[in-house]
Amino acid sequence: MSLDEHKAAARRAAFARRKVAYDRQGPGAAGKLSEVLAGHRGVALSGYMPIRTEIDPLPAMEEAAAHGPVGVPVIEAAGLPLKFARWEPGCALTDGPFGARIPAALDFFEPELLIVPLVAFTRAGGRLGYGGGFYDRTLERLRARRPTLAIGFAFAAQESEDLPLEPTDQPLDLVVTETEVITIRPSSG
């Protein structure tokens, strides 16, 4: 099986687990994410507008917006890093690429903390996304400029023992689920 086939199979299995968790628990569960973000008040952060069966970070983003800038990702084109547009609770939104909503008025900024959506994760900080490489390119670019914290946000059911990862895949620093906060230990080597 090729790496692409292995990733496709891992995504299918993870999407199925995520749908079951979403249907059982609903899109909420941002309480633990709010607790983590409280330790980073005022730090420029990006969340995301949930699509399909993604866990919903909006309640935590709304709380964070009272203390500092919050944004959401904007896809400009395939192969490019993401840009981040300022978002506020109740701001006017429009449809962006891939079904995610984005602010109607695009005021771009660079976050230092990213709440990262994902399909599957490992306790070692591995992340399987949708396959476009947007977050990998973006995290690589941001981390080259300054420390940037990547917080994966997912249902606990999205955890995998092992994922097919590549050297270009950017690791997560934390994973927050509806049941726990997983701190990733840097690998020695």
TrEMBL record:
Keyword line: ATP-binding, Ligase, Magnesium, Metal-binding, Nucleotide-binding
EC number in record: 6.3.3.2
Cofactor requirements of the protein: Mg(2+)
Top-tier EC class: ligase
Pfam family membership, one: 5-FTHF_cyc-lig
Domain of life: Bacteria
Molecular function terms from GO: 5-formyltetrahydrofolate cyclo-ligase activity
Catalytic activity: (6S)-5-formyl-5,6,7,8-tetrahydrofolate + ATP = (6R)-5,10-methenyltetrahydrofolate + ADP + phosphate
Family that this chain belongs to: Belongs to the 5-formyltetrahydrofolate cyclo-ligase family.
The protein, known as: 5-formyltetrahydrofolate cyclo-ligase
Origin species: Thalassococcus arenae
